[in-house]
């Protein structure tokens, strides 16, 4: 019986992102607490919402039914969307597991029916 290895290649950006999260966990776990306490990721990466188009920000606002006054400019939309986006809880372990499963199985969002709170 022969075993054929399947190699999975991840782009440099995602490889570095995963590695930086791992390194951060090692540093935080090596503090005087013995590594037994849950890790609170204080230095989460910031998302530059200014890169998004105004229509995208409006769609996000509409999708999550964020209460706002009409006629907001881009800076105001970025502020409101950013506050909401940062407040969404993320289970990092489940998200990474799902991401790796999707990459390994060449799946995209429409291929999988996942029952999660975030769509």
Could you explain how this protein is built, in words?
This protein is mainly α and 119 residues long. The chain has a domain at 50-105. 46% of the residues lie in helices and 0% in strands. The chain contains 4 helices and no strands. The chain has helices spanning 12-29, 54-63, 74-87, 92-104. The chain is elongated. 3% of the residues are buried. Mean pLDDT is 75; it is low at 31-41. One of its GO terms (cellular component) is histone deacetylase complex. This is Histone deacetylase complex subunit SAP30. Belongs to the SAP30 family. Residues 22-44 are annotated as: Disordered. It is found in: Nucleus.
Low-confidence spans: 31-41
- Percentage of residues in helical conformation: 40-55%
Estimated share of beta-strand residues: under 5%
- Along the chain, the helix and strand elements come as HHHH
| Category from helices, strands and their pairing | mainly alpha
Quaternary state reads single chain
**How much is the radius of gyration in Å?**
19 Å
- What is the typical, i.e. mean, pLDDT? 75
Number of H/I helices: 4
How many β strands by DSSP? Answer: 0
Task: State the distance separating the first and last CA atoms.
Answer: 43 Å
Q: What is the makeup of the main sheet?
A: none
Q: Categorize the overall geometry.
A: elongated
